[in-house]
Design a protein that fits this description.
The structure is a single chain. The chain is mainly beta. The termini are far apart. 9% of the residues lie in helices and 42% in strands. Strands 1, 2, 3, 4, 5, 6, 7, 8, 9, 10, 11, 12 and 13 form a 13-stranded parallel beta sheet that branches. It has a domain of 99 residues. The longest helix has 15 residues.
Length: 158
């Protein structure tokens, strides 16, 4: 009985190179910047009802709290729903409270407390809006504006 072995008739290696058609060369920095901007626009962290988080949260954009958070939160915008509770240091540009928040709160722009909202602690804000029924207790202060006033040194009183 003889064993048949097939002959290798393909002795040469075939290679093909393809070039993309109609490509535009963008700088890598521009592509990375666009991708990061897309992520920031669409990024929202939602902590659902019944969820309890113990720890610190840092987000680039919005945080919506329907559950419970024990810890510090730093973000662009924070919204505490009616069922939401937060206890910790909060640093944000804007804050909207319908539930309960307690701790050291630093809101750069607008702090809004809705009719069912409760906020207590050491609070610093740029502007504040409190609906009828909203509760605010603790030490409050208004944040200084970042706009510099120009004081001409060369002016003299007449």
């Amino acid at each position: 009985m003889s064993l048949l072995r097939p002959k290798n008739i393909y002795k040469e290696k075939i290679e093909a190179k393809f070039a993309p058609i109609n490509t535009i060369d963008f700088p890598k920095e521009q592509i990375d910047k666009n991708k990061s901007n897309e992520k920031k626009k669409n990024s929202t962290l939602m902590i659902g009802q019944g969820v309890k988080i113990t720890g610190n949260i840092s987000a680039d954009n919005e945080v919506i709290i329907q559950g419970s958070v024990e810890g510090d939160v730093e973000c662009d915008s924070i919204h505490v729903d009616q069922s939401g509770k937060i206890n910790g240091n909060i640093k944000s540009k804007t804050m909207n409270i319908e539930g309960a928040a307690e701790g050291e709160v630093n809101v750069e722009d607008v702090l809004t407390i809705k009719s069912d909202g409760k906020l207590s602690g050491k609070i610093c804000y740029g502007r504040i809006q409190i609906e009828e029924g909203g509760q605010l207790s603790g030490e409050t202060s208004v944040a200084e504006r970042k706009e510099k006033e120009t004081k001409p040194d060369d002016w003299k009183a007449l």
